[in-house]
Request: fold
Amino acid sequence: MASEALKTDIKFLQGVGSKRAALLYKELNIATFGDMLYTFPYRYIDRTRFYTVSEINADLPYIQLKGKIVRTNVVSGAKQQKRLVLTFADNTGEIELVFFQGLKWIQEKYRMGIEYIVFGKPALYNGEVNLVHPEIELLEEDKGGISITIQGMYSSTEALRNNYIGNKAFVKLMVNLLTALQGKITETLPDYILNQYKLLPLPEALLNIHFPKNSGLLQKAYRRLKFEELFFIQLNVLRQRSERWEKKNGFVFSKVGNYFNTFYINNLPFDLTNAQKRVIREIRRDMGSGKQMNHLLQGDVGSGKTLVALLCMLIAADNGFQSCIMAPTEILATQHYESIIAFLKGMDINVGLLTGSTKKSERKRLVESLLDGNVNILIGTHALIEDMVRFKNLGFVVIDEQHRFGVEQRAKLWTKSDQPPHVLVMTATPIPRTLAMTLYGDLDVSIIDELPPGRKPIQTLWFNDSKRLRVFAFMKEQIKQGRQIYMVYPLIKESEKMDYKDLEDGYESITRAFPPPEYVTTVVHGKMKAADKDFSMKLFATGKAHIMVATSVIEVGVNVQNASVMVIESAERFGLAQLHQLRGRVGRGADQSYCILMSGYKLSNESKKRLELMVQTTDGFEIAEADLKLRGPGDLEGTQQSGLPINLRLTDLGKDGKLLEYVRNIAQTILDDDPLLNREKNLLLRMQLEEAQKKINDFREIG
Ligand code: ADP
Ligand code: MG
Reply:
């Protein structure tokens, strides 16, 4: 229950007004008192530490100096831009303070010969160290009010600084805010939790994160606020799970019967890996428990998830239930259909395929046989969600490549039978544990951590563009040996500014280097019509084309065993998860496969790290963990689709894994004792969750 005071429009804060309010909203997304209260410093400076001018170098972070202005000078630079230079001195030397804006105002405000504190970030300019737009205050000014020893630094923007809302002004506003909110910030956690886990009360935590009394309290403030961020997410997902379990309304798949056994004995062309066996056991246990199953199956590309899904669908059939697989693209749905038909050859089981391009008459026939129970397994795309699709007794739903579907879409499948079916969500984008617990905390997770035997690890090589001819020669060599090649480009028609190849140029240069009719090259990208895309895909899938030039549309699921080389152009432009997905398109057959990363010369450190990591490892989980660490908090793929109000301002899932687990255990302990949060002492928690839920619903209505 955010207190009412937090909802006050920021324009009513002393020192703001409507013009600054608009700016604060535009630049920092601050609309209310509450928004501002939860805008935390991104770093802290020890304000008891003063540097001397002689100590300053450009590598230092924000520093403060004590001294006097000894000269002022207005200099006109290029394009008639003027700058104000104040020469500032202490008894060790002089440094220039440079201003480009508000010259007149600054010149009038600050006088020579008076003791000031100057506060700023040293930078190199024309070979000299100086401070650009530092903050200047009178030596005495600090006294009175909230005394500052550790100074918070808030993110700022150029627009804010140009309108005189630098750090100093922002801090002043924050003082006003905390004064206005005194006594009006209400606690969000029950006393017993605060006491038991030694957490600061909320008002104290908020005060200390903005104006730390000392570093001990700053740490405690952090801990309390991070605890809260994680706690409510965990409480929410775990409560959903306990509600689901309390209902005990899951179909009970109690037996393994003819379908499963026949397939296992007669049709299965290879042994299951140990990981596949374990995961099937885990899923079977859940499907037989009487609870409705919600299972997340993670497994690297090529680890054999489809087969696991198929075996589970056969168990559903053995228990008299229908099942379906929903895939994100038509290509993928069709591929599933074909491989499952092949697997089930000779068995008395009916499999249907429903996609956007299923013909009307066929669709009608399919819908009828779903209703009368003739079709046991339905495979398709979003088309499965359409209202006209009804089952006789849908008991098991498989969703492939989870991240492509929103929560809403998933939920729609539930309504296709009277009781909610068991759900298996499969994803090949490995998700670090911490993230999985946050995004899919209500799902139980199974992991296939083993590839089928005999796979040769993919060799990954990284070249810069100057080695293009060598790469082309290598490709020709591979084609001569009968292999096929993917060439992937980041985007179609990107801005001219960035120096990278787009698909159309790429296609041209490829056809020049690999001229027809000796070489056949096809193109697939996101903006093509479905039929054209299909045609190009088929050309490649049937081995008639040597090279497929594509954008990342091929990212998901295509399976062409003979394609053993993946060339990724401008690889620095892809994220790690995407690179890993793309690489997973090769290495599916018996031949040695290669992934070739092409990049420019000038790379950021982060890009370099990404590409190096790709060369070093093929382990999807290692890559996912590194990805989370590299990207840091607040930039989590999939959070949009998660449907949870995940707003981690302080928590870094890459680093706070331990805290997350600690908090999750606490949430679980509370729910074990009081599954629906009905007890008096947990009333506050329940109200908080309900309020959060309301916010999500409101948000959905807007969105
Ligand atoms: P995923 O969906 O996890 O990326 P697939 O289910 O498409 O992987 O499997 C990749 C390939 O490996 C398929 O050709 C499949 O038939 C094969 N496969 C699956 N399990 C095994 C196994 N235990 N042994 C050998 N090959 C397997
Ligand atoms: Mg798959």
Summary: Residues 215-247 form the longest helix (33 residues). Residues 305-306, 400, 428, 557 surround magnesium ion (ligand 2) (CB under 6 Å). The radius of gyration is 31 Å. The first strand starts at residue 43 and ends at 46.
